[in-house]
Amino acid sequence: MTDGIICAPQPEAVEAGADILAKGGNAVDAAVATALVQTAVDPQMCGIAGFGSMQIYMPGSQTHEVIDFHGRAPLAATAHMWEDRVVGETDDGFGFILKGRENECGYGAITTPMSLKAYANALTKFGSMSLSDLLEPAIEYAESGFLVRPHVFEFWNNPPIAGRMGYVELMTKFPATRAIYANSTGELHKIGHKLVNKDLAATYRRIQKNGPDDFYNGEIARDIIADMEENGGILSAKDLSQVSTTVNDPLWGDYRGYRIATNQPPGGGIMLVEMLNILENFDLASMGHNSCEYVATVSEAMKIATADKDKHVGDPNFIDIPIDHLTSKSYAASKADEIKRGMKASVPRMNSGDKESKDTTHISVVDASGNCVSLTHSLGMPSGVVTNGLGFMYNGCMAVFDPRPGQPGSITPGKARFSAMCPTIIFKNNKPFLVIGAPGGTYITMGVLQAILNVIDFGMNAQEATAAPRFCTTSEVIDVTNRILRRTERGLTDMGYQVRRSARSYNFAGVHALRNFEGKWDGGADPGRDGMVISV
After folding, report:
1. What is the spatial distance between Cα 241 and Cα 258, in angstroms, rounded to a whole number?
2. Are 13 and 533 within 8 A, CB to CB?
3. Residue 161 confidence class, pLDDT cut points 50, 70, 90
4. Can you give the pTM of this predicted structure?
5. H or E, element range at 149
6. Are 48 and 113 contacting, i.e. CB atoms less than 8 angstroms apart?
7. How far apart are alpha carbons 414 and 76 in whole angstroms?
8. Hey, which residues does 506 pair with through a beta bridge?
9. Which of 55, 57, 155, 273 minimizes the number of CB atoms within 10 Å of its CB?
10. Interior CA angle at 418 toward 356 and 277, to 5°?
11. What CA–CA distance (Å, rounded) separates 249 from 269?
12. Average pLDDT, stretch 508-531?
């Protein structure tokens, strides 16, 4: 590595970020360029009308902060607006199903668009290149087209999940969306099709000319609000004009002598720290990687953290979160003792369905000066809505709010909902050791946790750690990928666990990581995604 190293789930985006590093851009420049290309080539995973969390570490300026940009319920939202329409809750506790699906598809599903504001803020504070210049690669892919990759096509054609609307229907429901993503007969484009989105390119050129404020207070904002008003959306001009990011210090933890820097609530970092604290009380390496004992022990930590999240974690501007308690070593020790005594944690649910979809993407980047960025950004579940002439899809994050008043995640104007995103940097001897994060809905914290354990407890390099078989336990069921041994599954069943095998060999988040080993960086791109690592 001369100028840096970068990994992400899309080859086009990684190459764009690597080009920025090669031109002398820093890690923040490369992360933003990569994110913008992701919005063009993976437009249901992310977009400028999405949300996210970005951890930035710049040792030269002694900067270390997390820019959080979680989507917020519009000011016109009310606590009781969907109370009488609740059908059920997904079994991982991250999303609700309504009669009519108003919270997941259409104009009622949209929370405040945050991502463009975050990219602009990060560049203003820490970048060395302009947003205008960094938009160029994304404009090229939007204007000239990108090849529909297998992962994009698979995502579009996934069957309906947990009673939610299937993506084929969502992608073809609205004329402006259908015009971009479907052919003349209404079928979604196939693998290898060159998908052109000239409207998105034109929007990006407007932002180049007029600046990002055009999106929030200018002509683009007026186009957005006109569409919302015409179609019964509750997002308002005031919502757009009040959009602002939140800058936090990292949430810190430690694990076996390593220091863990992750994001604050409503991000998923609190769960990651809690799980690592619990697992520090066990000799995981002696159990054997993915053995019955190992899977059961880690699963119990996952269940404990999930139940605590459901009960206690939400937007800290609206509820009191017992962060010190949930991340304390003494609390973790008490929970570890319960696991050692054979107690099995419970994860209460309303009426549950199946797992949440994984509509998110991630970037890990380190530059030649040692600056590190871990950025996760998303549309949540895409709303399916594209404003005619603008080209980008809006987030569908209202689907994760709890329609029942009085809960940590209940609907309140201006409130953000918990997100499992946990962009993380791990330090060894006060120097960055692991830059890591993942897309994957509520699987994110579980995938990142296992990759960290793979590196620290089992000595894997970054690629081995991201590729190793994973499992996920966010309910009463242990979900396993198809590469978890069947004898392990049988052993878990004998221990009284319900085990559900996925047909996928790679599942439960798409972890992307960079590891510093003896002064040299290596990278890992999850084989279950389309991404790669480039060292510049």
Report:
1. 41
2. no
3. low
4. 0.96
5. none
6. yes
7. 9
8. none
9. 155
10. 95
11. 12
12. 95
What is the DSSP secondary-structure string of 207-262? HHHH-THHHHHSHHHHHHHHHHHHTT----HHHHHT---EEEPPEEEEETTEEEEE
Average pLDDT over residues 279-306: 98
Give the C-alpha distances (Å, rounded to integers) separating 381 from 152, 238, 351, 356. Answer: 14, 24, 20, 9
What is the rounded distance in angstroms from the CA atom of residue 15 to the CA atom of residue 536? 10
C-alpha 96: how far from chain center: 18
- Nearest 5°: CA angle at 298, between 295 and 301? 145
* Average pLDDT for 174-182: 96
Q: What is the mean pLDDT of residues 459-481?
A: 97
48: Cα separation from own chain's centroid: 14
- Side chain identity, residue 388: N
DSSP state of 369: T
pLDDT in tens, 411-459: 999 999 999 999 999 999 999 999 999 998 889 999 999 999 999 999 9
393 vs 86 pLDDT, higher one: 393
Q: Find all residues with CB under 8 Å of 142, minimum gap 6, and list them.
A: 40, 196, 197, 198, 200, 201, 204, 391
What's the pLDDT score for residue 140? 98
* Percent of all residues in the chain with a pLDDT value above 70, rounded to a whole number: 96
Is 163's pLDDT higher than 60? Answer: no
Annotation says 376 is catalytic: no
pLDDT beyond 70 at 367? yes
The one catalytic residue among 111, 360, 442, 466: 360
**Residue 495 amino acid letter:** M
Q: What is the DSSP string of 262-308?
A: EPPTTSTHHHHHHHHHHHTTS-HHHH-TT-HHHHHHHHHHHHHHHHH
User: H or E element: which one contains 473?
Assistant: none
User: Strand pairing partners for 352?
Assistant: 89
Cα–Cα dist 507/333, whole Å: 30
> What is the residue type of 229?
E
Residue entry with tokens 């946790």 = 449
Report the distance separating Cα 377 and Cα 131, nearest Å. 17
Rounded distance between C-alpha atoms, residue 52 and residue 68, angstroms? 6
518 CB-near residues (< 8 Å, 6+ apart): none
Distance CA 400, CA 458 (A): 35
What count of other Cβ atoms lies within 10 Å of the Cβ of residue 276? 25
Query: Given this model, what pLDDT does residue 87 score?
Result: 86
Q: How many helices (H) and strands (E) does the chain have?
A: 20, 20
Domains, in order of start, for the chain: 4-81+99-243+359-394 (no CATH), 248-354+421-535 (3.60.20.40)
The helix (run of H) or strand (run of E) holding residue 194 is strand 194-195
Residue keyed to tokens 């949430």: 251
DSSP state of 105: S
**Nearest Cα to Cα of residue 167 among 151, 148, 188:** 188
